[in-house]
């Protein structure tokens, strides 16, 4: 199983991605999906700016996706992350994990999202609704704590 990793400016379509992952496959019994959306932070956020180093980010995400494939019996794994300006309500990230059985798909998707949320090589900057430019967003302690469970 070779994970599919894409970092792109344009939006993505969940139905299209699931169809592409499962087309012609009778061995897949479960596909778990996660879509992360940009929040408006109680009306204070106009957009989130996401930056990355092309090539490096894909390689690092692929490395972690291969780790997920080694931990769980996956039949497919897709991770798509957007970059550029993303406005509240728009999609930022998608993970699809496919397996013969649901537990492996759920756990692999959760593992990938914990990684993408805390350690993936992206930089996020707030563009505030009042027209000012915010600082670079740091990972939250709760996100780090959630990701730490995979190291046990």
What distinguishing features does this structure have?
152 residues; alpha+beta; four-stranded mixed beta sheet; 8 strands; globular
In brief, what are we looking at here?
This protein is α+β, with helices and mostly antiparallel strands and 152 residues long. The protein contains 4 helices and 8 strands; from the N terminus they run E-H-E-E-H-E-E-E-H-E-E-H.
Describe this structure as you would to a colleague.
The protein has helices at 14-22, 56-71, 102-118, 141-148, and strands at 4-8, 30-37, 45-52, 74-82, 84-86, 91-99, 122-128, 133-136. It is of the alpha+beta class and 152 residues long. It has one domain (4-151): Molybdopterin biosynthesis MoaE subunit (Aldehyde Oxidoreductase, domain 3). The strands form 2 sheets. A 4-stranded mixed sheet has the order 1-4-6-2, sandwiched between helices. Strand 7 and strand 8 (133-136) form a beta hairpin. Helix 2 (56-71) packs antiparallel against helix 3 and helix 3 (102-118) crosses helix 4. The longest helix has 17 residues, at 102-118. The mean pLDDT is 94.
